[in-house]
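Holo prediction. Input below; ligand is adenosine monophosphate.
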Amino acid sequence: MKLILIGCPGAGKGTQAKKLSKYFNIAHISTGDLLREQIKLETELGKEVADIMHSGHLVPDEIVTKILSERIERDDCKNGYILDGYPRNLSQAEGLTDIIGEVDKVVLIDVDDKIIVERISGRRGCSKCGQMYHVKYNPPKAEGICDECGSKLVQRKDDAEETVKNRLRIYHETTSPIINYYDEKGILLKVSGIGGIDEITSYLIKSLEEA
Ligand code: AMP
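Structure of the complex:
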């Protein structure tokens, strides 16, 4: 099974992709996570993309496509995968068909921009284990400290409010056109991203199984 999750930054793609990957036993591939890993490891590629990512702009297609092509060759992708954050523009969407052929379904998680700004700018993640929190909707027991491992919580640089607004603008300009691209192929599934996490997951699973 090959799935793509589309949605603006903060729509809950990462959260839902992890849950769907467990349920369908397919790999979860987040190009944002793959790029952040390169930055953390301080590789040449990481140094090249750090400033672009921190400003909320898109990394050049060749770099992301190369990282993605390498990732889908790994063993855990044999049963399929769910792409989270790729494709991000029309040229990546067209190129993806050349790399992996047709995908089964493309799921659009739909959330209004105003809700997104509040959601993302309150997001905090554990610097060690990656566990995610929200200052208002899912706070840790002790402020700024991870419940799971006791490490410090940090805000992703690109989650700062002004950067979020910039990322939303870029999303509407460059990512929105791929919605039409997949809709015309008849494989687009649109779901609301407002509600409880588990409620949205159940709805997504039901929609995918019925589709
Ligand atoms: P994400 O975690 O999906 O929100 O991605 C974080 C950042 O990584 C984005 O703002 C981009 O700078 C970069 N990025 C992730 N995926 C892509 C992609 N498919 N094309 C270009 N840049 C990407």
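The pocket of adenosine monophosphate is lined by residues 9, 31-32, 35, 52-53, 56-59, 64, 85-86, 88, 92, 158, 167 (CB under 6 Å). That is the main takeaway for now.
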